[in-house]
Amino acid sequence: MIVWLNGTHGAGKTTTGALVQQLIPDSRVLDAEKVGETLMDITPGLPRTDNFQHWPPWRPLVVETARRVLDYTGGTLVMPMTVLVERYWREISEGLAHHTIPVRHFVLHADRETLRERIANDTVVGPDSPFRLAYLEPYAEAARTWLHQEAEVIDTTHLTPTEAAWQIADAVKVVKA
Q1: Taking residues 74-93, what's their average pLDDT?
Q2: Would you call 37 helix, strand, or coil by DSSP?
Q3: pLDDT tens for residues 25-35?
Q4: What whole-number distance in Å separates Cα of residue 163 and Cα of residue 103?
Q5: From CA 4, how far away is CA 80, in angstroms rounded?
Q6: CA angle 119, 2, 14 (to 5 degrees)
Q7: pTM given for the model
Q8: How many angstroms separate the Cα of 49 from the Cα of each of 25, 90, 156, 160?
Q9: 5 contacts: CB under 8 Å, gap ≥ 6
Q10: What whole-number distance in Å separates Cα of residue 148 and Cα of residue 151?
Q11: 59: burial class by Cβ within 10 Å (0-12, 13-18, 19+)?
């Protein structure tokens, strides 16, 4: 199984994902961003883009990487990764379905004010990341038009990452005893 944690940049996917992994037996975190980083390391570089998700190889490589890891390890993959383009999500989810890999898709949501505050106080990427701020509006549009209908929404506005992780682990009903 895959537990996919979606949401905008700065929503807490990485932090929550690590906590979810601790709560779900026989699970591992697979960050699909690493697939994008591999593509970014190709020299000479692939055609210029502002987001590696726009490169057509990224989506099937995410599917294939997840499939191969699950074939090797079994268990559950926790995948914290923002996907805001509906067509890209369809490619990934349909690819995983083709391999009969069940996916529980969660969106970590917070209101805009909370997201701005979290981005302003981020100690990992740094305060007020222009990259993260640039995705607030695309996230709001995706949430309004398709994303919240395609996933289980966990409103983290007033939750700690630990509380969000417990909600997700409880929802998939495989919490460690």
Answers
A1: 98
A2: helix
A3: 999 999 999 99
A4: 21
A5: 6
A6: 20
A7: 0.94
A8: 38, 21, 31, 34
A9: 13, 16, 17, 20, 78, 79, 80, 81, 106, 108, 168
A10: 5
A11: buried
CA–CA separation, 119 vs 15, rounded Å? 14
Which pLDDT value is given to residue 174? 60
Residue type, 132: R
Residue for token pair 């807490």: 12
- Which pair of structure tokens corresponds to residue 85? 């383009």
Which residues are CB-neighbours of 162 under 8 A, at least 6 positions away?
Answer: 19
Nearest CA to 78 among 127, 34, 19, 36? 19
Residue 48 DSSP symbol: P
For 101-131, the pLDDT digits (tens) are: 999 999 999 999 999 999 999 888 899 999 9
For tokens 């961003």, the residue is 33
